[in-house]
Amino acid sequence: MAVPARRTSKTKKKLRRTHQKVSRPEISFDEAMGEYRRSHHVSLKGYYKGKKVID
Questions:
Q1: Residue span of the structural domain in which 47 resides
Q2: Residues 6+ apart with CB under 8 A from 44
Q3: CB 38 within 8 A of CB 23
Q4: Tell me, what's the pLDDT at 22?
Q5: For this UniProt entry, which residues form the secretion signal (predicted)?
Q6: Chain centroid, CA 34 distance in Å
Q7: Where are the beta strands (DSSP E) in the chain?
Q8: What is the pLDDT of residues 14-53, one digit of tens each?
Q9: Chain centroid, CA 53 distance in Å
Q10: Distance (Å, rounded) from C-alpha 48 to C-alpha 26?
Q11: In the chain, what is the straight-line distance between the N-terminal and C-terminal CA atoms, in Å?
Q12: Residue 50: inside a domain, yes or no?
């Protein structure tokens, strides 16, 4: 069984786990409302897929 010659530092351990990344939000232009909105989110005016969902 292999044994590491030296101890792995905390920084090296953390660098291996770099699956968490900050990604930019997907923003699309809504033709019906004439404004930008995030994909799969309610617009600021309360519309989702062209229907009023929030008063």
A1: 26-55
A2: 35, 37
A3: no
A4: 80
A5: none
A6: 24
A7: 27-30, 35-38, 47-48, 51-52
A8: 887 767 778 888 898 888 778 888 888 888 888 888 888 9
A9: 24
A10: 15
A11: 65
A12: yes
Structure token digits, residue 46: 């309360």
Instruction: Provide the 8-state DSSP code for 31.
Output: T
DSSP 55: -
In a domain, 18, yes or no: no
In a domain, 41, yes or no: yes
Number of domains in the chain: 1
Cα–Cα distances in angstroms (integers) from residue 46 to residues 1, 27, 31, 41, 51, in the given order: 61, 16, 15, 10, 8
Check residue 29 and give its pLDDT. Answer: 87
The answer to whether position 7 is within a domain reads no
Type of residue found at 19: H
